[in-house]
Amino acid sequence: MKVPKFDLAALKAIDFSKVIAIAKQRGILIACACVIVVIPVGAWWFRGGIKDSIQATMAKRGKEFEKIVSLEKSSVTVRNPVGDPKSETVSLNSTLIDLLKARNESLEGEVKGVYLSAVVHNKKNHAIIQTKQVVFPKPLKENEELLDEIFLPAIGPAYTALLAKNRVNTPPSPADVLEAVKQREISFIRDDLKRKNRAEVTDPKEIEQLSQALIKARLDALVEVARDTAVYLDAGAIRMPPEKKKTSLGACFIWQWDLWVLDDIFNAISNANTNSKEDAKSSVISAPVKRIISIRIDAPASVAAASGAETSPEPAAESEATEATEAKAAGEPATLAATTDATGAPIAPSAEITRDFKISFTGLASCQLYDIRNVKLKMIVATSELPKVLDSFAKENFMTVTQLKIAPINSFVAARQGFIYGAEPCSEISLVLQTIWLREWTTEFMPLGVKNKIGTRGVEKPPVAEAQPDAGETKTSSEAAKS
Questions:
Q1: 273 burial class (0-12, 13-18, 19+ CB within 10 angstroms)?
Q2: Nearest C-alpha neighbor of 433 from the set 355, 378, 369
Q3: Which residues, 6+ apart, have CB-to-CB distance to 397 below 8 Å?
Q4: CB atoms closer than 10 angstroms to residue 252
Q5: How far apart are CA 209 and CA 378, in angstroms?
Q6: Sequence-ordered list of residues with C-beta below 8 angstroms from that of 417, at least 6 positions apart, any chain
């Protein structure tokens, strides 16, 4: 690039005096010309810079305004204790934010309080039976081989005590009734008819009197037992623990769990049969629930099985299922394999419950919050009192009647078998009870094998540190080993 050359010598030829003279004479005109030419050009240049700055500033402020407007029209979801949250568009401010925060904290407290109340209600007076040594959740290693000697002598009497507390009974045996009738026959012939033996009773009128006396004697023998009975219980209606059998820790816990289920069932029946505190000794003759034919408690199901997940069992699992079937057929709970590693998931009290109405009309199945144990129950009840009986089950510890079948029965035929139901018409009902057991407290006692079987870790607690021997004891032990 060529730089133009200026002839500085030419500047010396300029007569600046003339220039000054012209400026004095035409100064105003020259200044006006400069203003007319220079100022518009300068104004145009400054205008461009100012415009760009103003546009950038306005764009920034526009975005800030849009943000404020969006906050003003924010959507807020207000939590509802009954599980029906509502969303509304509101203008946020510090006061509203504080109120929403306080409300959420209050609802959190209420939810936790309701959950804890549910746990307390579900647990009620259910406790582990007292044994000579600790059994649940895990006995001492040296005692695992002695479970049948530690647990079975305690669980059997616990079942018997439950039945005695609820005044269940069976009708008198035919032999006992026959003996009562024979004794009445002897006394009636001797004291009322004034005869020595049955052969001397030949008068048709006396034979009729004797027949009526013997009928009454039989009924009296049956009624005497009925008055001391709150509800009849058929032989074999409940699976009772064995007196002596090699058992596992998991099976022991299932026996304990079944005892809790039975306790709730008998409490519901007792409440249905008791009209008031003064009527605590009501008999089966006037009670709504007359007789329990059978109670069958389903084993706890794993979360996967409850949700309908299909799994292909391995050979070990198939053998375990076979063992469970055989044990069930023998009337004993299935043996649960011992394990040392937890394979389930922790309980989740805050997880959403997904209902599956293909299972039952409640849609509930075992999950990480609770276990479902269904109970098949067959009973004889007074037909008119059936609503009261069903309502009593509904009031007892998260029980729901999910299935019900009803059929009339003949009370006279039952009386021939020794069952006295009273004058009211009765029916045989077959129902399925759905019982809920919160894992918050059941897993506190649950052995690891049962936890793994149903797929839960339960409430995990930090392990208790074992006491370490002091230096003196260690040194003594070492010296003793060397010697």
A1: buried
A2: 378
A3: 121, 122, 124, 264, 267, 435
A4: 27
A5: 40
A6: 171
Q: What single string gives the DSSP state of each residue in 398-449?
A: SEEEEEEEEEE--HHHHHHTT----SS-EEEEEEEEEEEEEHHHHTTT--HH
205: tokens are: 């009128």
Q: Which helix (H) or strand (E) holds 292?
A: strand 289-297
Residues in the chain: 483
90-140: pLDDT as tens digits: 666 677 677 777 776 666 667 788 888 899 999 988 999 998 888 998 888
Tokens of 482: 């060397």
- pTM (predicted TM-score): 0.70
Secondary structure (3-state) at 19: helix
Cα 432 from Cα 294, distance rounded (Å): 12
Residue 460 region by backbone torsions, left for phi larger than 0, else alpha for psi between -120 and 50, else beta: beta
In order, the DSSP letters of 259-289 are: HHHHHHHHHHHHHHH-SSGGGTT--TTT-SE
Q: What is the pLDDT of residues 206-240, one digit of tens each?
A: 888 888 888 888 888 888 888 889 999 999 999 99
- Domains of the chain by residue range: 129-167+229-308+321-458
Per-residue pLDDT tens over the stretch 393-429: 999 999 999 999 999 999 999 998 899 998 899 999 9
- CA 379 to chain centroid, in Å, comes to 26
Q: Provide the token pair at 280.
A: 């605590």
How far apart are alpha carbons 322 and 278 in whole angstroms? 51
In this structure, are residues 241 and 136 in contact, taking their beta carbons and an 8 Å threshold?
Answer: no
Q: Residue 13: phi, psi to the nearest 5?
A: -80, -10
CA distance 145 to 247: 9
**Residue (of 277, 298, 273, 297) closest to 393 by Cα position:** 273
